[in-house]
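To: structure desk
From: M.T.
Subject: fold request, one chain
Message: Could you run this one when you get a chance? Sequence is below, nothing fancy, just the single chain.
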Amino acid sequence: MSDDAIQLLVQFIALIVFIFLGVRSGGVGLGLWGGVGVLFFAFVLQEQPGSPPIDAMLIIIAVISAAAAMQAAGGTDYLVKIASKIIESNPKQITIIAPLVSYIFTVGAGTSNIYFSLIPVIEETAYKNGIRPERPLAAATVAGGLGITSSPVSAAMAVMVGLMEPLGFSLTEMLIILIPASVAAIVIGSIIQGRIGKELKDDPEYQRRLAAGEIVEQSAAEKIAQKELPPRAALAAYIFLAGVLTIVVLGLFSELRPVYEVAPDEFEQLSVTLSIQMVMLTVATIILMTCNINAGQILKAPIFLAGMTGMIALFGIAWLADTFVEANIDYINVLLSDLVTAVPFTLAIALFAMAALTTSQSATTKSIIPIGIALGLPAQLLIAFWPSLIGVYFLPANGTQLAAIAADRTGSTSIGKFVVNHSFQPNTIIMWILSVAFGSVLAIVLHGTSAGAAEPVPVDTPTAVASATPAAAETPTPEAEATEPAEETPAVEATVAPEETTDPEATAPAEEPTTAPEEPTEVAATEPAGTPTLVPTTP
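Reply: Done. Structure tokens follow.
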């Protein structure tokens, strides 16, 4: 075994040990043990620490501030009331309706925490209509996981946007792939889920509990309906949703984001990453000023506590994973390059497995997606594979899973004696495969199979040049483009550059030409037509 292989094995074992200790600790313990792992890599293994996910952490702070302000003002309860009415409106189709409601509200809120309040409503509606509660509860729980990868304001999306923007894919282009694929997977997966397990009247565990008098009547829906909301609860919800819509619009219409001259003839456009931070902090401020709450209530909101817990977990585990990957990136590339190139779906399996291991969508994104980028996989396929983060439900360790099990009075939602054979497992696998399959087809139809296949932005002005890579610190300029090797073509042809707007460094594996403004170069203007080009390779 080579030295590189031994190093990789030793460091991978260390990585698994610290993740295991973090998962056992739970909550912020996942992030704390991740920090210990970084210290171990730096001081004991003598590896340079990787980069903590600062941008993602800042987005999480901004988003949970807005979401917590909405919750403090009663906006979350208002949304739960609406969701409850939707679920109860057609009880016979609850196995399909409940997952779609869970998905939509997770997309809007950016967190699956909103689903906790819906669990008793789903269970009660199913039970009253003689439907096995496991079916809608399992499907709705897993659908919330797909909502995370479709939400413009989720913590995982904060990481993914930062990785995809330099490759020429905006937030909106990502959602165009992710949302249809997820919805299709949820609908088909829910239909299949409706045929899993015995009918409730034939379930032996339910019959045992019924005979033993363990079934307790409850009225979760009535409690939600009767709950008195603060006077401006609806306003808080609409302000938050308006902020989400604003973020989507800014991603869809890049010309709405300002462009700054950062150096002479060098322009840089405001990134979506910074836009999300500014918009959500503004949303939190507007709610604070208009909905009769104070700043202290924001800090006490359950969503704020859950969000900060997730941020600390992301901080430690993502930092640890990045340290491991950076220390072994060359050898990892050698091991995976042929396999991933031949079978790209291998990366989806890696995403699923890492998500199951870390139970963190954000940390998994920060760890695995850069490997796919380094291996030269097309960005559109990376986006299609991204719903593999649904792997967080592979083990019954997620809060929403445990809450659903606890809420099911019939006992149909459960954990098997082998742990992995739990109620959520079939739907996790089904929705994973379907979402990735649908997403891959959609990505190829829209962008082809080559790297950097995002729709090019018209290159007419310096502003357009900058907008091609809004999140990149080093925006391509005419001078920088001139450093690319020039092909021996007539000078007349050299005046028009190929319309490719992605970051040249990000698309290097595909060996595609980089973007240059469609302007005549000074050298080309001085050369006689029809002679070989003498365009220099340096400014």
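Reply (cont.): The beta strands are 259-263, 266-269. Let me know if you need anything else for the meeting.
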